[in-house]
Amino acid sequence: MFARLFSEAGLSLDRLRALVEVGAAGSIVKAAAGDPVKQSQISRQIKELEDFFQIRLAERQGKGIRLTAGGKELARISRFFLLGLSNFQRGCLSGEQAFRIGASATFLEQYLVPVLSAPGMASSKVKFAVETVRDEEIERRLHGLTLDFGVVTSQSLSRPLQLKEIGSSRLRLWMPKGMFDCEQAAARAIKDEHLPLALALVEFPLPEHPLLSASQNLFRCETFLQARRVLETGAFAALLPDFLPPAEGTNCTELQPSGLTLKDVHYSLAWNPRLLRLNPHAARRRDWLLEKLTAAMSNHRSSAQGEQTSKKGERPGKGRLRPTEKDD
User: Per-domain residue ranges for the chain?
Assistant: First the structure.
């Protein structure tokens, strides 16, 4: 069955691993971590694979080298094969299981890190590594199995990737006190697109914000954490999810002008079903993550809704500036 595959020299696990590392890193230079000796070794190993398969696996791009379509496909096949062998070895040796999870910086800080560092996790044989990764990069890396799981705000992913929602968050508009004399002036600034506003354009892109166009006086941030920090300066308003209220002591109010409807941000856990076939333990880790993250987001959402209900009781009516602390 495999006689032809092994009839010639040049195919080895070490050479396939080198190709996989180049595919994951994006270039030979990055895969070799800048080591000229290792770069030469990897280049030679890829050349030997090219001679074996009689196909170009890498090509020049500027001063560097990248994988061709054939190289990427062979790297993908090899990654599945090597992952299967690695999982089998860990199972035979009763070794620890390690899983890589990608998410936005804000979600990592608010949910993933607390869940994964809970009491008892340090002594567990199951280990996790977290990375700050954008949605589109999470999707690409799940396909390549360089991430095991990802938390995304996308509502759909390309096949065969799967996802399940773990919770949502309502966006809230916060404004420094004293920025406007009255709520009508603040609402007019939004309508006229003159509101100084900090937006997390990576974690929640601008087109998703109703009535908040690119012509606003924007402070363009990558994360909600950065937007909250800008709010603390008192020079800009900020749009934040309800699980990330302004820092304690920030002198600001919540603005709810009539006619402004802010969308929810939906978060889902995503994975590649091929991972579950390669690693039987991954299904249990997926289910555990779904349970823990869903519970964590639900608790935060309930707390945020309770806080809002309490404030509504204090200050009934719509379209009001709502303080985070009592006026002096």
Answer: 13-90, 94-167+267-302, 170-262
